[in-house]
Amino acid sequence: MNKESDQVKHLLAEVVSWLFFPPLVSAVFFVFLIFKYSQDLSQGLGWLVVISPFILFVPMIFFAVSYKLGWITDLDMSKRDERPTFLFVFIFMLLVSSVILYWIKVPVSIFVYTFSGLVMTLATSIITLFWKISFHTAATTSVVTAITILGGWEFAYLFLLVLIIAWARVKLKKHTIWQVTGGAAVSFVTTIFVFYLFGMVL
Fold first, then answer.
1. Does residue 36 form part of some domain?
2. For a 10 Å CB count at each end of the chain, is N or C smaller?
3. What dihedral angle (degrees, nearest 10) is formed by the CA atoms of 90, 93, 97, 98?
């Protein structure tokens, strides 16, 4: 019975990890912001067409190619030394995306969220060179913090998702408790800091 229970928990942890795959979580919320703050559907689609190659397609394609060619051994990039190349590409694309969003004058909330993602990813990437910090908890914490800042404290309950993801990553032995906590903490601090710089506070 205990073995069956553990198998169920392991499967649940796998499902949670896939549902909250970092690039997916960030991309879904970005698309949501695009259409939330656009004046109409055509404007939102226009912004998305301009920015998608940089913030969505290039990172995803590079990730898929890296996996296919064996540059990374699994989709979690479990080996810390496999992370720098992909993260460099992702950070560069976030930088390009931030510049483009600023240039085409999207609403400040979209730009700030993207820029905060750049700062958060840069910070966690530097840390992962020395310590395997959790990008799963970092990405979701970034999104939930942004939702709470933009939408209000009534959305703070979404931070419970971070706890669920942390449990899943530890259950799968992908990270330690300190690594998932570190990912959440660094993301929370950097996201709040960037939004604060642009006059947006909790």
1. yes
2. N
3. 70
Cβ(121)–Cβ(82) below 8 Å: no
91 vs 13: CA distance, rounded Å: 28
- Residue that is written with structure tokens 């460099």 in the block: 88
pLDDT (mean) for 147-174? 95
Q: Compute the average pLDDT of residues 52-71.
A: 83
Q: How many domains is the chain built from?
A: 1
- Asked if 202 and 43 count as a contact pair (C-beta separation under 8 A), the reply is no
Would you say residue 155 lies in a domain? yes
Q: How far is CA 91 from the centre of its chain?
A: 12
Q: Residue 176 contacts by C-beta under 8 Å, 6 or more apart in sequence? A: 170
- Rounded Cα gap, residues 117 and 111, in angstroms: 10
* Residue 89 belongs to domain spanning: 2-197
**Amino acid of residue 44:** G
On average, the pLDDT of the chain sits at 90
Q: How far apart are CA 180 and CA 167, in angstroms?
A: 9
Measured in whole angstroms, the distance separating CA 52 from the mean position of its chain's CA atoms is: 16
Contacts of 90 (CB under 8 A, 6+ apart): 23, 59, 121
* CA Rg value for the chain: 17
- Residue 202: inside a domain: no
Say which DSSP state 79 is in. S
